[in-house]
Design goal:
The protein is α+β, with helices and mostly antiparallel strands. The protein has a single domain, classed as 2-Layer Sandwich (HIT family, subunit A). The protein has six helices and five strands; from the N terminus they run αααβββαββαα. A five-stranded antiparallel sheet has the order 1-2-3-5-4. A hairpin with a 3-residue loop joins β1 and β2. It is globular and about 55 Å long. The protein starts with 24 loop residues before the first helix and ends with a helix.
Length: 183
């Protein structure tokens, strides 16, 4: 027998998901619509890192076609990004060399993070285009986010605060030191 329900004034079928309404995020969405684009090395934050000393730029490793950098606004301690040197916005624009090195550096980043911090899991991925959620949509980057049991809590939602137990410079020093030591 089909399940019946009161769809209420908004209609729709139940899908088993709870909803957390965050209307304050609309300000971020609206602001993103009017943000000017990053046209390359003169204004792109990821391109600007290429001319800075590694520690100042939080660059953990520089490869042939790509580099690895700590995220300035991390989800978790050790949140890395793997970026091509070239100012391209889409994965489909990456050369075979860039694509392959991004994969190799992502694997190595996972090994380093596991070795240094006992990571229990990872979120790995890239957001493509501003609509896809990329904060810097003009410069391709792949996120490597280390995860641990219990690393999420109510603070970001209720308190609008992200608790990070380690300073970026301390995290950078550990990861940069371990990069060549981890096989």
């Amino acid at each position: 027998m089909p399940e019946t329900f009161d769809s209420g004034p908004m209609g729709g079928a139940p899908d088993g998901f709870e909803r957390l309404w965050t209307p304050h995020r609309m300000a971020y969405i609206e602001q993103g619509k009017s943000r000017s684009t990053y046209e390359g090395t003169h204004d792109c934050p990821l391109c600007a890192k290429l001319d800075m000393p590694d520690r100042d730029a939080l660059v953990v490793h520089r490869g042939e076609a790509c580099y690895v950098v700590l995220n300035l606004y991390p989800y978790n301690p050790g949140h890395l990004m793997v970026c091509p040197y070239r100012h391209i916005g889409w994965y489909t624009d990456a050369t075979d060399v860039e694509r392959d090195e991004m994969g190799v550096l992502t694997q190595h980043a996972m090994r380093v993070l596991s070795s240094v911090s006992g990571t229990q899991g990872f979120n790995v991925g890239m957001n493509q285009g501003a609509i896809g959620g990329a904060g810097i949509s003009e410069h391709l980057h792949q996120h490597v986010v280390p995860r641990w049991m219990g690393d999420s809590n109510f603070m970001p939602i209720i308190g609008r605060t992200k608790a990070l137990p380690e300073l970026l410079d301390d995290t950078w020093a550990k990861l940069a030191r371990a990069w060549d030591e981890v096989g």
